[in-house]
Design a protein that fits this description.
Strand content: 35-45%
Oligomer: single chain
Structural class: alpha+beta
Radius of gyration: 19 Å
Largest sheet: 8 strands, mixed
Distance between the termini: 63 Å
Number of strands: 8
Number of domains: 1
Number of helices: 1
Length: 165
């Protein structure tokens, strides 16, 4: 397993769960964010991922010489559905990441980070070889917000009016 902390270039957050964990598929909750980066700014990150996977493949070939084809897990990124000039990377963690402002100060915990926020992400690459295949995970360490897009939870519904009776 290879681990190294790195920081991405600034990109756009897609479906961020950074202030509250996502419990839809995991009752314990997972913090995660997808980061949309222009392909030309993502080449270093793609290379790191490929290097981690290549190392896992080499280790497997050492353990089982003569193995021709190895099962591969899905990559932690894919081409953006709407704009082929961008890649979308998946970062996740079981632990709540620290959120920092552009100037390096901690972000006020009352702030909610919404999609469209631009940020850089500190992450660790972690290779694995499991039954699902050989792959690489991008572990979320912290985020540094460039431009915050903020929203608030809607805990209110419109009042009933005459049309409802």
């Amino acid at each position: 397993m290879s681990e190294q902390k790195n920081i991405t270039r600034v990109g756009e957050a897609v479906f961020p769960y950074l202030t509250k964990p996502d419990t839809e598929y995991n009752s314990e909750g997972v913090y995660h964010v997808k980061l949309k980066l222009k392909k030309d700014k993502a080449s270093e990150l793609v290379k790191r991922i490929n290097d981690v996977i290549a190392k896992e493949v080499a280790q497997e070939h050492q353990k089982r010489p003569g193995t021709k084809q190895l099962k591969r897990s899905p990559l932690p990124y894919q081409e953006d559905d709407t704009d082929k000039d961008y890649l979308v990377f998946k970062f996740k963690s079981k632990f709540k990441p620290k959120l920092y402002q552009k100037d390096g100060e901690l972000l006020d915990e009352s702030k909610k980070v919404w999609g469209g926020t631009t940020m850089a992400i500190a992450y660790q690459t972690s290779g694995y070889n499991q039954s699902i295949g050989i792959g690489c995970t991008l572990r979320l360490v912290y985020c540094q917000i460039d431009e915050l897009v903020e929203g608030k939870e809607n805990n209110k519904v419109p009042p009933l009016n005459e049309a409802h009776y």
